[in-house]
């Protein structure tokens, strides 16, 4: 473990992080071994209490360890908190703390990053600076501040050395799987960890994140329910990202709202996914609930664009063909051919088309029927199980192509969030509004407001083109 110059600690070396993970695994295993005689001879009620006690202490241990280590390890905990309903609730609740409430770095260390990046102490760069972070995540933590122009901002400060920790983490695959398997019962850790290392290194480049965030902020400017905060460019660098401050309700509190409010919030999140993919050709690849701030009546702010995937027309063509053949034309063979072109299915696989439609069609089930559908936690869990299924007859012939790895993560995250909200809507009608090959009429009050915004946005673009 390596101490930084200000006294906060962040394990940077592969050896140090490997040792910490090994000790965590031994501690978890020892805890179960030490209590096994009590479990054997206890009554049924007592066994349940003992197991709950062990699970709770283990979850707290894992949360504290992953939170202090940051990087890919903490990202694993964040994803585990919402992506798999089969995980025991004790673990999911503990891991949820990692979404926006992980152990922070010291105020002195955060201040040193501001000095290095912006040239002076925070209380000189800003009129007001809160040394206590409002959120601490896997790559950096966020502080509130007031600029000299009087603007309230959120300042994301990157953990020093985090790039090296990410490199160390992705090389620790074997031990990561061992610890994740012990700490997260029921989680398919192999698939999750393999996917995690693909693009995580992009998240440490705050200049790239600022560029991506501004792309979304400009596109959604004036949208009735979707909001992306603008970046304050003059106060942003490769390791500091300053944006407009967003104040609202966090996801855990939204779960206690009435069902109508939850449905509207879910509709907005769903619209953001579909519109960003099919109209903007880009999407935030880290859709965990800690990146959403809610304002009621369907209004949602979207944060954190460190892992943004851009899609070309060529990337999207087979995806649009697949949903069109399956949902619109009911053409199983066309659906199969689209999956083959995209690389999800090996051409000529010796399996019937009916099995392919059954296997892959589950991911499109929300848009196959023109009727209201409730997305439950059980349904979201079934999607995840199907995605990670390595024993089915199609497993030897199916894969997730590299260009779509982030997209699959987006889809799994979306289903997990909507399932947590028990969201009900006519998802088919909403999708038809946004599918470029349908361009259907507005089907909800939010859809009507969005259609007006879209007309005004296009009229403004035409006016600017004419004046130019």
Annotation keywords:
468 residues; Transferase(Phosphotransferase), domain 1; disordered N terminus
Summarize the structure in words:
The chain is α+β, with helices and mostly antiparallel strands and about 475 residues long. It folds into three domains: about 15-100 and about 165-200, no CATH class; about 105-160 and about 205-310, Transferase(Phosphotransferase) domain 1 (Transferase(Phosphotransferase), domain 1); about 310-435, no CATH class. About 55% of the residues lie in helices and about 10% in strands. The protein has helices at about 15-40, 45-70, 70-85, 90-95, 105-120, 120-125, 160-170, 175-185, 190-195, 205-220, 250-255, 260-280, 315-330, 330-340, 355-360, 375-385, 405-420, 425-435, 445-465; strands at about 130, 135, 140-145, 150-160, 225, 240-245, 280-285, 290-295, 300, 310, 375, 425. The strands form four sheets. Strands 1, 2, 3, 4 and 6 form a five-stranded antiparallel β-sheet that branches. It has a three-stranded mixed β-sheet with strand order 5-9-8, with helices on one face. A hairpin with a 5-residue loop joins strand 3 and strand 4. The protein is globular.
